[in-house]
Amino acid sequence: MSVVFTDETRERAREIIARYPADRSRSALLPLLHLVQAEEGYVSPSGVAFCAEVLGLNKAQVGAVATFYTMYKRKPTGDFLVSVCTNTMCNVLGGQEVYDTLAEHLGVGHDETTADGTITLEHAECLAACDYGPVMTVNYDFFDGVDASTAVGVVDELRAGGRPMPTRGARLCTLKEMAVQLAGFADERDGAVADGGPGEPTLRGLRLAQQHGVSVPGFDPNTPIRSKAEADKAAAEAKAKAEAAKPAPVEASTAPVKGGDGASAPTGAAGVAGPAKPAEATGPAKPAEASGSTTRDVKAPDDKSPQVRTAETRQPDADTAVPDAPGTKVPTDRTGTAPEAGDARSAEAAGVAANAPAGDGKPAGDEAGAQERNLTEAKAGTDADGAGPADANETGAQK
Asked: For 145-163, how does the pLDDT look when each residue is reduced to its tens digit (9 = 90+)?
């Protein structure tokens, strides 16, 4: 049965789509899914069709997104989604006990809704609040440090029509009201927005840093944050200052200065003949620093496997190696002579022949004979040691 969405929903859908450039309207899909969930309480097939219609997509594209994110519910959900973290930290602190107690108390399991349609229970892998564990959320608002009794008290109050106050954040709202906010619209209810300071576990690291005098070197909390224009201006000024500080290049005289006997004589900085300076004692000449190669890379043929291309990079042929390419060196023998181009190719071919590529059915290095032998032993129900069928399968796997 198809659902006709209200005029208000359609108006809000147009407003959501208008937030994005005309050629990027499909980016509005996520808030649109929250919007249809706000009306029906879940993303129904009609909701998928509605999103596809207003965005010009097909239903498969919309469904692929709706099934990927767990916040989009694909079946009717209660007014209050109660999520209990059962991941490592919360589990160690009693999260699984909280979930089990709620499941027994409410008579529902994971992703199931109570008969009165009030509460849907789910276990969550992580609610990103390990320092407050064990935690549970009601429509994504946190209840920190819960135990089995406090969790039961929260759900009982919800079923009685109450709105218990979360540990952090504003007062609770229904799942549909929360979906409106997630679609990007303000909640006008009294108390829907509230300030809340950080909890003590969040501030523990700051307290320890203050206690032990740990701080970032040179950090001044009163330093103003510059705008992008100011930062760009400061960077340009620093660059200009660095350029101005560079010494001017000294032009060397190209014409030799004749000495008194007509012979060329060394020149000083001003081009005036002066006494020759003795050469400074230096060690063996150092090779020039590699500054990067400008030689065009030799492209490997497309029919070569990645293993062959890697081998060529590490041990290139004399004909194809680029001598000054970073990380490569033309191999030479003890006499300093580069090997013939065919030597590397012959060695490469021998290596490829000795290491046949693995097929889809077995890992590299396995022999078909060993597999057949293991299968035969398993079927026979015994091996050389007289093991039974189960042992034979295990022994064959080990072999």
From this structure: 999 999 999 999 999 999 8
Region label for 43, one of left (φ > 0), alpha (ψ between -120 and 50) or beta (otherwise)? beta
**Residue 99: burial class (beta carbons within 10 Å; 0-12, 13-18, 19+):** buried
Please, where are the H alpha helices in 174-333?
175-182, 200-212, 228-245, 306-314
Label residue 262 left, alpha or beta by phi (over 0 means left) and psi (-120 to 50 means alpha): left
Backbone angles phi, psi at 112, to 5 degrees: -120, 155
Any residues with CB less than 8 A from the CB of 107 and at least 6 apart, and which? 114, 115
Q: Where are the alpha helices (DSSP H) in the chain?
A: 7-17, 29-40, 45-55, 59-66, 88-92, 95-106, 148-159, 175-182, 200-212, 228-245, 306-314, 341-354, 368-380, 389-398
Phi, psi of 143, deg, nearest 5: -120, 110
Is residue 381 a contact partner of residue 392, using CB atoms and an 8 Å limit? yes
**Is it true that the peptide bond before 134 is cis, omega within 30 degrees of 0?**
yes
How far apart are alpha carbons 260 and 176 in whole angstroms? 103
Measured CA distances, 120 to 142, 182, 309, 359 (Å): 16, 19, 56, 48
Asked if residue 267 lies in contact with residue 274, where contact means CB atoms within 8 angstroms, the answer is yes
Length of the chain measured in residues: 399
- pTM of the full predicted structure? 0.53
Q: Which amino acid is at 25?
A: S
